[in-house]
Amino acid sequence: MSLTADDVKKIAHLARLGIEQQHIVSYTKDLSGMLELMTQMSNVDINNIEPMAHPMDQTQRLRADVVTEQDYREKFQAIAPQVEAGLYLVPKVIE
User: Fold this and answer.
1) Buried b (16+ CB within 10 A) or exposed e, 68-88
2) First to last CA, the chain
3) How far apart are CA 37 and CA 7, in angstroms?
4) What average pLDDT score do residues 62-87 get?
5) pLDDT tens digits for 11-21?
6) Is the pTM of this model over 0.85?
7) Are 5 and 25 in contact (CB under 8 A)?
8) Where does residue 6 rank: exposed (0-12), middle (13-18), buried (19+ CB within 10 A)?
9) Cα dihedral 63, 69, 70, 71 sign
10) Which residues does 75 contact at the CB level (< 8 Å), separation at least 6?
């Protein structure tokens, strides 16, 4: 699909973008190229291709799930101005 300069102006207007007149030709060429690439990609047969979680087929390194700090919750809540049922009470700031 090939766009015209008028198409690009309409798209820019709908997107509320200001495009200078001297750049309209390059935008027309670039957007037409993107649409052509999408058309080519939509014609590719992907029926026998298994989806990948990552394009490099890598796995993420995960750290060991171990506790590294002590639980200071009771200590912190003991010095808090207001606590109820294990939650910190704060003044209402939004009506």
Assistant:
1) eeeeeeeeeeeeeeeeeeeee
2) 52
3) 18
4) 93
5) 999 999 999 99
6) no
7) yes
8) exposed
9) negative
10) none
